[in-house]
């Protein structure tokens, strides 16, 4: 296949076909948080892949294997895809990891269009999943389809693992990879997504942070009571405020839990240099998120380093008392907070949770009146800078985009560790999504021109991978 000269862009028919198939996926709700439309979406996706020339299977787990059993539906299947190279059957194997589930659409009143319309306006296609992750997924499928159309073959073996639970923490992915280990054997995983910056440069990430999700509930009187009794009865809301103040220091941004940083290792000089050289548009970042400055007045370098490599403690939800219009003078009976802690390599979510519990119990928050629940967690993972495929991905992307930004780790979270732990294979993030795409928010969209470039980029990656 090395002698086959492929066109430099997609034809109009191929672009229209890409848009049409993406619209099919967007128009099928597949919300894992409420188990809506997941199997239906997996079947639609399987049909699209079969039409592209990819052999597919829907993989299921037995009930006793599943991490959680849903009362409203069974665990969604993994869509497995495979194309074996005729010309290079004993060559290396590239695995694409993606997901077909999406976030809820709330608040639905903030959407300008139907969240599942797939409406095209100018260079944008709108809808939940248009960028995260159905838009990214379609570029990988179309790259394979395009190669098969042009040459009748693919130059290396290609596999797909597309799950339906990524947006709820991939609770069953490790079970799937363990059970179907032989199917998923590969030499490199191309991760589900990646960004393109405002200068049309591909941001390639070599890792992802881990996460620990926790709910803490402080209990007070047996019911909501008249607020005049606040002089006599301690408010769980105030207790929670005090509890939270013990977790995090706004002065230096450090987490105060005993031993929290014990497992964190120092960055290498090469990693520090990569972070220092990474482009970062401070003013564009502030404008996009409507802020006037960074936390603790940090510099651009400090922010880049924190985003890629530092743990965090975030309050993602806080509920107590009366929050509707007007006044209701009560002392609430409970106060609840949801926290997410971003983790870095070597930090185990379960161990970090135990540190949190031990710390709060030592501060006088007993099991009787403070409930601390582990909700979910994933370890962090980073592919080493010296991985043999990093340069290949960088060189491939450089042919399509206006340069490349290599990132030690993204600030987000995903189950990369599963593939390393079970398959001993590294992962690299690259995709075609712009930063202001509103993923997880109303009016999510992606750019049509970048879908085309993303498809062409994956063609380059597949061609170059086959020669590695």
Please state the structural category: alpha/beta
Mean pLDDT: 94
Radius of gyration of CA atoms, rounded to a whole number: 24 Å
Largest sheet: 6 strands, mixed
Secondary structure: number of strands: 21
Name the shape in a single word.
globular
> CATH class of the largest domain, please?
Alpha Beta
Q: Specify the number of helices.
A: 13
Q: What is the first-to-last residue Cα distance?
A: 14 Å
When the domains are counted, the total is: 2
Query: Which regions are unreliable across 5 or more consecutive residues at pLDDT < 50?
Result: none
Q: So, the CATH homologous superfamily of the largest domain? A: Zn peptidases
- The main sheet orders its strands as 1-2-6-3-7-19
Please estimate the helix content: 25-40%
Strand content: 15-25%
Overall CATH architecture of the largest domain: 3-Layer(aba) Sandwich
What is the CATH topology of the largest domain? Answer: Aminopeptidase
């Amino acid at each position: 296949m090395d002698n086959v000269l492929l066109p430099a862009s997609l034809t109009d028919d191929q672009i229209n076909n890409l848009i049409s198939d993406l619209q099919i996926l967007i128009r099928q709700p597949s919300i894992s948080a409420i188990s809506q439309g997941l199997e239906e979406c997996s079947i639609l996706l399987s049909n699209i892949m079969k039409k592209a020339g990819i052999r597919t299977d829907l993989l299921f787990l037995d009930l006793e294997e599943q991490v959680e059993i849903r009362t409203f539906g069974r665990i969604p299947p993994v869509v497995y895809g495979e194309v074996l190279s005729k010309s290079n059957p004993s060559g290396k194997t590239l695995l694409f990891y993606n997901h077909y589930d999406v976030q809820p659409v709330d608040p639905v009143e903030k959407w300008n269009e139907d969240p599942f319309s797939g409406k095209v306006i100018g260079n944008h296609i709108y809808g939940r999943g248009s960028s995260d992750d159905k838009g990214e997924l379609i570029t990988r499928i179309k790259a394979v389809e395009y190669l098969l159309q042009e040459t009748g073959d693919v130059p290396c073996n290609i596999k797909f693992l597309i799950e339906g639970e990524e947006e709820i923490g991939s609770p069953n992915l490790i079970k799937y990879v363990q059970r179907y280990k032989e199917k998923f054997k590969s030499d490199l995983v191309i991760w589900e997504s990646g960004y393109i910056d405002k200068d049309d440069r591909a941001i390639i990430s070599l890792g992802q942070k881990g996460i620990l999700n926790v709910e803490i509930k402080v209990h007070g009187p047996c019911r909501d009571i008249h607020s005049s009794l606040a002089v006599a009865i301690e408010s769980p809301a105030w207790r929670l405020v005090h509890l939270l103040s013990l977790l995090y220091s706004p002065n230096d941004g450090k987490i105060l839990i005993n031993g929290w940083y014990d497992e964190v290792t120092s960055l290498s000089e090469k990693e520090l240099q990569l972070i220092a050289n990474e482009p970062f548009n401070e003013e564009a970042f502030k404008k996009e998120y409507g802020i006037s400055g960074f936390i603790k007045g940090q510099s651009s370098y400090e922010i880049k380093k924190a985003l890629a490599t530092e743990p965090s403690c975030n309050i993602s939800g806080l509920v107590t008392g009366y929050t509707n219009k007007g006044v209701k003078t009560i002392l609430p009976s409970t106060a609840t907070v949801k926290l997410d802690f971003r983790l870095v390599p070597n930090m185990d979510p379960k161990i970090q949770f135990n540190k949190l519990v031990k710390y709060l119990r030592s501060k006088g928050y007993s099991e009787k009146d403070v409930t601390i629940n582990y909700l979910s967690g994933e370890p962090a993972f980073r592919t080493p800078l010296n991985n043999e495929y990093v340069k290949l991905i960088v060189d491939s992307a450089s042919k399509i985009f206006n340069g490349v930004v290599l990132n030690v780790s993204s600030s987000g979270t995903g189950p990369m560790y599963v593939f390393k732990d079970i398959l001993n294979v590294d992962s690299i993030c690259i995709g075609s999504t712009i930063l202001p795409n509103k993923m997880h928010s109303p009016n999510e969209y992606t750019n049509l021109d970048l879908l085309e470039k993303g498809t062409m980029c994956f063609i380059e990656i597949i061609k170059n991978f086959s020669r590695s």
